[in-house]
Design goal:
about 260 residues; mainly alpha; about 80% helix; about 0% strand; globular
């Protein structure tokens, strides 16, 4: 990244860490994660059986939302303020503009996740630190995947209000309705759609990939068989490939679209 691109990334970071919605989301995540960890500690529950899965559910809901709030105005916000042409007139490629915005907002997201899970570590006691550390890496990947998707939405949208509406709809679709729709297909088809097909479709959703990955961490590799499913969880190579695709492809498409855009003003 050039000096100008690096400066843009720092500017994005400084702007995002002062964003009241990002701060509110970070504080809410920290409080709720701390509450779950404290409850597990007071109940003296098995961390893998209670605290871990509860935190997975919490992070699968809140982290994607914070990530999409962070990214929804990345490009369309400049367009709405009529500053996109000025930004693109800088001695930096358009692809690097997208990369700088993504990097700056990624650091802000990482700080939010670290604060949230770090606060939970502070109240969980020594036994809970291992559980929370196991969550840290995959949770960051989940957030970065939704951040990348939000960047693509921001590039495609022509107005900021449209981008905000689309990211909320996308969050609801991928976090809430996607798995329910697949379950409905499995039930209605009465076996016509194989479990392997449904499993593959689950893995195409970053939220589903995250849940399956953490399910394997906290419940073991045979967790699906215990639920009556005969499919196997994906291997490490497949998981890495899927996460790489979610992190790279939406942002790369955003850069390509911005490269082709004609901007005036």
């Amino acid at each position: 990244m050039s000096r100008v691109g690096f400066a843009l990334a720092l500017h994005e970071l400084s702007e995002r860490i002062r964003d009241r919605w990002v701060l509110l989301g970070s504080v809410l995540f920290a409080l709720m994660a701390s509450g779950v960890s404290l409850y597990g500690r007071m109940a003296e529950a098995d961390l893998n059986a209670l605290t871990g899965p509860s935190l997975v559910t919490l992070t699968a809901l809140l982290v994607p939302l914070v990530a999409m709030v962070l990214s929804h105005d990345a490009i369309v916000g400049e367009r709405d303020r009529n500053t996109l042409g000025l930004l693109l007139s800088l001695p930096v490629s358009r692809m690097e503009v997208v990369a700088a915005k993504y990097v700056g907002r990624s650091i802000a997201l990482a700080l939010s996740v670290i604060v949230g899970l770090g606060a939970a570590m502070g109240v969980s006691g020594p036994a809970g630190v291992h559980t929370l550390l196991a969550l840290m890496g995959p949770t960051l990947l989940l957030g970065l995947a939704f951040l990348s998707l939000g960047m693509l939405i921001s590039t495609c949208a022509r107005r900021q209000v449209t981008a905000a509406s689309v990211v909320v709809m996308t969050w609801f679709l991928l976090v809430f309705f996607y798995d329910l729709a697949l379950l409905g297909i499995l039930v209605i088809s009465d076996g016509a759609v194989s479990q392997q097909t449904i499993s593959s479709l689950v893995l195409m959703n970053p939220a589903g990939l995250y849940r399956l990955q953490m399910m394997q961490v906290f419940a073991g590799p045979e967790v699906l068989r215990s639920l009556g499913m005969t499919v196997a969880l994906p291997g490490l190579g497949t998981v890495c490939l899927l996460w790489t695709a979610w992190l790279v492809l939406p942002t790369a498409v955003s850069g390509i679209l911005l490269t082709r855009e004609k901007v005036t003003g």
